[in-house]
Amino acid sequence: MGGVPTALPRLRADAAANRARILEVAREAFAAEGLDVPMTAIAHRAGLGVATLYRRFPTKEDLVAEAFTEQLDECAGLLDAALADPDPWRAFCWMVTQLCEMQARDRGFSAAFVTASQRTTEFGALRERAERGFAELVRRAQEAGGLRRDFHPADLSLILLANGGVRAGTAELTAAASRRLVAYLLQAFRADGAAPLPRPTAVPLDAALR
Known about the structure:
This protein has eleven helices and no strands. It has 210 residues and is mainly α. The protein folds into two domains: 4-67, Tetracycline Repressor, domain 2, CATH 1.10.357.10; 69-209, Orthogonal Bundle (Tetracycline Repressor, domain 2), CATH 1.10.357. Keywords: DNA-binding, Transcription, Transcription regulation. Residues 38-57 bind DNA.
């Protein structure tokens, strides 16, 4: 009877350590290889049994959502900050810059945002909110005269397609190259002196983020 109080905390500590290890391995695997990494492979890399993994996360969707909770919160916070900015053009530029920085920093989140948003309520709600919020940023920036009138909210997919193709060997170089690309793009989006563009192409957001 005297051993029970010490045994239970030890079990809880082991369970917490296993959970943390699973999430760490999952984030690394998803970022490097996408979301197709099998659950069995994640369990193996974490040094745990498959049964242990499934006790903590019954489905892959559960694991994906938990692995990217911090990024989910960060994305929501970015959108709130942009919509609260009284300068529409600055808010638009800042949001595009932040999204591209997040994509360059953690490509796993891009895949999670697309895949999990089709299967989990939390990610799906964020995706709908993000699309509505970005469209509102576009509208405000255009009405204020900063953003060219023929920019379309669907052009965000083109931005992310271009930014997602940046590969510079190291994380630091990739981030720097991404920043330069975004700076070029934002210059092209300015309303002053803008030449007409071809008609917007409705590239699915799924294709851009994958």
